[in-house]
Specification:
The chain is an alpha/beta fold. Among the domains are: about 1-85 and about 265-350, Alpha-Beta Barrel (TIM Barrel), CATH 3.20.20; about 605-720, Immunoglobulin-like (Sandwich). Helices cover about 30% and strands about 20% of the residues. β12 (about 390), α18 and β13 (about 430-435) form a beta-alpha-beta unit. The relative contact order is 0.10. Bound molecules: alpha-D-glucopyranose. Alpha-D-glucopyranose binds near residues 90 and 134.
Amino acid sequence: MTDTKLTSLLKQMTLDEKVNQLIQLAAFFYEGTTSEGKITGPMEEMGITNEIIHNSGSVLGASGAKEVIAIQDNHLKNNRLGIPLLIMADIVHGYKTIFPVPLAIGCSWDSDLAEKSAEIAALESAVSGIHVTFAPMVDLVRDPRWGRVMETTSEDPFLNSVFARAFVRGFQGTDLKSDKNRVAACVKHFAAYGAPEGGRDYNTVNMSERQLRESYLPAYKAALDEGCEMVMTAFNTVDGIPASGNKELMRDLLREEWGFDGVTISDWGAVKEMVPHGVAANEGEAAFKAIEAGVDIEMMTASYVKNLKSYVHNGTVNEELIDESVLRILKLKDKLGLFENPYRGADKKLEEEIVLSKAHRKTAYELATKSCVLVKNDGVLPLQKSQKVALIGPFAHNGDILGPWSWGGSKEDAVRMDEGFGKKVNSSALFVAQGSDIETGTEEQLEEALAAAKKAEVIVLALGERSDMSGEAGSRADIRLPEIQLNLIAKMKKLNKPMIAVLFNGRPLDLHGVIDEADAVMEAWYPGTEGGKAVADLLYGDVNPSGRLTMSFPYSVGQVPVYYNHFSTGRPKGAPDAQVRYVSQYLDIPNKPLLPFGFGLSYTTFMYSEEKLSSQTMRTDEPITVSVKVTNTGMVTGEEVVQLYVRDLVGEVVRPIKELKAFQKIKLKPGEEKIVTFTLCEEQLRYYHKDLDFTSDAGFFTVFVGPNSEEVAELTFKLI
Ligand code: GLC
């Protein structure tokens, strides 16, 4: 439809119909539709009517071609102007074929494969009737106590931006109207949801505008620059005002400064939550603040539908604000081609053929092999197929490896660790025992595990967190493995056999009781549908691990927040002239994380040499190049993530001790060498000054290049 036609459609709508377009209700409101069209969902407690539902603008969480077609059919029968529903759902890292959780995908440092995973997720979603996905989640994270760190890609703004763009490209493609195999993306949670105090979900976020702009906003902006169609507001406050009622954030910055004219949606109940936040006395005030802030769709509360009509009639709210929101929603429906075809890509037959196909599983497998991170190996890996193996732990025979946001993924479809191992060694050489549950265990389980381990030459422990121990509302103050599992490790250690720990978890853990006891540690995160096969292939060396951590593992939870791109302080520990005591340090633990950003091991080794700059001076219009020779000095082919960091030695405000500016993932055969070259330009040196001007300063900079954020060679140049 042209804008004119959309505007004329808007003009035909009554005020009721317009306001009702602004509510999003969960699928269960529609699924109870009786043959007479009466909706039997839980309407009373929300105080909504059939009328409102028949005129609602979008539904949350419907999926499956059959179900969506039925809901849309019934909706169109009852909607006076035939305005179709938008079907939205949380397809974060897969629809039915589940890919590794985004934090794992980040550790692949492979944005092309990330894009491919989003494309597949979009295809499976589209044939199942979904129009919009509530992804990518790009919140920057520095606190592993927060349960949702698994849902984003890293602690670094640049890397999150790279993946944000890749996910949007994969979900949306280039033309949503013609490409029915894609879905619109909705970047979330705007803004800075990943920085709750204490790592406690939904808690207060408090930071300067400079830190917000420097670290937390870039990835949302990157998603929007890539054409992301929607933005979801965060539950938290930004500078003391909840995002869903924050005009400075939602209008001045998002719409005015960034020029975003797409649809915004509140997070679940976030409009009404302005009342418990204490910035609205009632739902009416919450509705007023949200519509003034430009929040178009209210998810799962009814503040808008209960208040906006009267507010327009009594002059509290200008009807133009509602028209604006409705028109944006109609434009999105049009962009998706819903007026021509309200069912869009929904296709029961195709759904059966495409969803969870072999090809999709293959991509999920490949991404899982690239997302796992080998963080310790005292020579016990790779395993030999001739070895007798005891596979022990609560994840030895457990399909709960899809993560907490795995939509239609089922544990039954997941390749478990024992299945993965079963393909590697014959049953006479594989002894499987649970040893304990995730948080509890019995003497019998332990005895059984000890018996299995005694028959084996090597012990593989499959340990971790249940998927509901991270994810939304999954914050933990103690981020160690559960006690029962630490006890299992200690008991196994006493057998003095080579012992490998594989971790299935949704956050960087405090690895006390694991990292010293095991001879090797593989971080598998939640590797998705093909996880068991991917991990087994990695442990046996059929695939060489290439994952690199994108979130620091703290030495202990007391060190949190710990992240690589921190400031120096006036008393940096380890500085040449530093005193022993009066420096920024802990008395009882090191300052550095246990495992740094960018870290990961391979079955081969790489040597870095001949680090060079093309010039010692950079001009605004004359970039410089940084080159380094990387050689595979080991016996097997391997992939290496060559990382480039920069430090601004003197700024108008303090500057991070290093910031990731570029990376290249390269593959080298044994003995092969490659000169890796990066171009560095002035724009990459800009930062927010005292007055928030985003510019660079002439002066000296250090370039760091190496395999992770700590093992780096340093070079210096001057911007003039
Ligand atoms: C949840 C999450 C959000 C999700 C939404 C819809 O509360 O915060 O990420 O998209 O509700 O399920």
